[in-house]
Amino acid sequence: MAKSLRKKIAQENTENSGFGNRATGRFINRDGLPNVRRSGINVLNRLSWYHTMLNLSSFRFITYLVVMYIVINLVFAFIYYLIGVEHLTGIDKSDPFNEFIDVFFFSSQTFTTVGYGRIAPVGFMASLVATFEAFLGLLTFAIATGLFYGRFSRPRAYLRFSDIAVIAPFQDATALMFRLAPYKNNALTDAEVTLSTAIEISDNGHTKSNFYRLETQLSKINTLALNWTVVHKINRDSPFYGFSEADFKNTSIEIIVHIRAFDEVFSNTVVQRSSYISQEIIYGAKFLPMYYPDAERDSTVLDLDKINEFQKTELPAFDGEKSE
User: What DSSP designation does 42 have?
Assistant: First the structure.
């Protein structure tokens, strides 16, 4: 990197990102969550289980529920088996395996408060365990129902970001570009983007990150129906002014993206974040179109499979300050 560029980066720090300059690693993960690990507090207080369950993917959420359901019923089946199958009427006692299967299904029927009636508890201990299990089942299904409703009713942006950002020609200069697109049939309006960057530098033998606000050519659009290519022109006001391909490759850079939009269905504001690091920035490339008219030419097709498609291109020669 040129000495003048190092001097410029070292002196300027215009963005209050919420991350201190001693923070290291990726600041925002691709899923939009901060890359921060907390210590000094036990795990029960460190994690919000409600937020964790809401943020899980649908597959993992359903998998956890099924696994927990099976585990809970296995535990109670062992308890009933330890008490003795003679305290449960209607058990098939032909062999231990059939006994345990019957006990397991009795547990699941008690847990869900179905109670078909073929198997019933006899005696104080079996009845006490069955009563507690039925109570636990009611609480568990109430919690599961709340989680289902919370996941279903929570407004989300449902935006897909390109996996890469590119340095592309733009208005006789160059620009940093990435793109995003809605992938569900939600209606987003008044979409607004805030762009900032973290650049890691060495200062007196210490490594720190400086943060900068990146101006965009278009920071707000009325309707987010197709893809949106966000453009930051690299001019004299940009912290990337004068960067060569080697500078982008060898400098630790992270582009932090913050999207805010209004969801008309929920009448609520939705937010989504993402980021790009140096290894995800392709120098000398431009995105290819990802939407086109359909065969009847009465509708527009937004092809989300093309969100990462690009082609290499030549960049205009930099006529300003040269890298040393």
Answer: -
